[in-house]
Write a structure and sequence with these properties.
- Helix content is about 35%, strand content about 15%.
- The strands form 2 sheets. Strands 3-2-1-4-5-6 form a 6-stranded parallel β-sheet. A 6-stranded parallel β-sheet has the order 9-8-7-10-11-12, with helices on both faces.
- Helix 1 runs parallel beside helix 5 (about 145-150) and helix 1 (about 25-40) crosses helix 11.
- Helix 1 links the parallel strand 1 and strand 2 (about 45-50).
- The relative contact order is 0.11.
- By secondary structure, it is of the alpha/beta class.
- The longest helix is centred in the C-terminal third of the chain and has 18 residues, at about 335-355.
């Protein structure tokens, strides 16, 4: 990623200088790449800066469209006035316009305090002063998160129709880092299947761990290696899946976010909850089996043609709740491991033919 350029030199001679205020979730940050790709395509020679939480910088480093990443380390729900003001000071006079992806009023503070002339975002949360290019959000037309992101980078009249192209995210893979990860974690030469049992939003988005374990055992019997990935909070879940099963590796909490990019790119397929790592896997080109319970595949689908959605569409789905309001989570419990095994093996046969 390029070092910050001196004022007036970003993006080459005459290049527009655009700052994007990024989202605070892994999956949303991956989907934001569709906007960055659109901006680079439409504004040749532009300089793209992204203000985002510090944890997301390793993901931004895998996006060739990002010329400059600026960390804004403010916790969820934290006002962080001093931090926002300090970051804004470093940006003053350096950008021509800003695009604010989150809809909170706090997210629009940095571009406002930095004095960026044009500040684009959706109306909401009393942002009349902070934004001067305000867009009305038509949820019926912009019915997916990624559409809303890309729309903010387009002229208002073009965005209003909703028929614009959306380039799928594509993260860069570091082959040297992958080789080191394979060595460090004792990964085998077996074809690998990734599993992501976590979902930050809550248990109503999490396939039962017993199902993951049953599937893992069946995949090992079919000759695969299984890699369970997630953050430190998922370590216990990973252990429940991997305990005393050969060729199942619990990597939860043992890898960095950038490492997950490389490990997922190396997998033949992944089985995953609707989570941030689902979007990471999709952006590496690996085939995704996406499990949906309380959320909707229509709203946040994996942005790839190599995906299979597993969703029962029960009468109570999608409820968008963190925990099942009916107490049974049938939407996920009744998605059987046998169904996923059949889907993975069928996809493997198709992949083998293509190769």
């Amino acid at each position: 990623m390029a070092e910050p350029a001196p004022p007036g030199e970003e993006g080459g001679e005459g290049g527009e200088r655009i700052l994007v205020v990024g989202p605070s979730w892994v999956g949303d940050m991956v989907m934001a790449q569709s906007l960055l790709m659109t901006l680079k395509d439409r504004h040749l020679g532009c300089h793209l800066g992204v203000v985002a939480p510090g944890w997301s910088l390793p993901i931004l480093e895998r996006m060739p469209e990002v010329d400059e990443a600026i960390a804004l380390d403010v916790g969820h729900g934290e006002f962080g006035w001093a931090t926002r003001r300090a970051v804004a000071r470093t940006l003053r006079g350096r950008f021509d316009r800003a695009i604010v992806l989150p809809r909170s009023w706090k997210s629009a503070l940095v571009p406002f305090l930095a004095g960026i002339p044009r500040r684009t975002g959706f109306t909401g949360e009393q942002r009349l002063l902070l934004l001067n290019d305000r867009r009305r959000l038509d949820k019926a037309v912009l019915d997916q998160t990624v559409k809303r992101f890309v729309a903010l980078g387009l002229p208002a009249d073009e965005a209003a129709g909703g028929g614009f192209p959306i380039p799928p995210p594509r993260l860069v893979v570091d082959d040297d880092n992958l080789a080191e990860l394979r060595r460090a974690h004792g990964l085998s030469s077996r074809p690998a299947i990734g599993m992501m049992p976590g979902a930050e939003y809550g248990p109503a988005k999490q396939w039962p761990l017993e199902h993951f374990r049953t599937l893992a055992e069946a995949l090992v019997a079919e000759g695969f290696e299984v890699r369970v990935l997630g953050g430190p909070k998922d370590a216990e879940a990973g252990e429940a899946i991997a305990r005393e099963v050969d060729h199942v590796h619990n990597l939860c909490g043992q890898t960095r976010l950038a490492d997950a990019v490389d490990l997922l790119a190396d997998c033949r397929q992944v089985v995953t909850n609707d989570s941030g790592l689902m979007h990471v896997a999709a952006a590496t080109g690996t085939r995704v089996h996406a499990l949906y319970g309380s959320s909707s595949p229509a709203y946040t689908p994996p942005l790839t043609d190599s995906a299979e959605i597993h969703y029962l569409a029960l009468e109570c789905s999608p409820c968008f709740q963190r925990t099942c309001p009916l107490g049974h989570t049938r939407c996920l419990v009744e998605l059987s491991p046998e169904r996923l095994l059949t889907a993975v093996l069928a996809a493997e046969r198709r992949i083998a033919v293509e190769e």
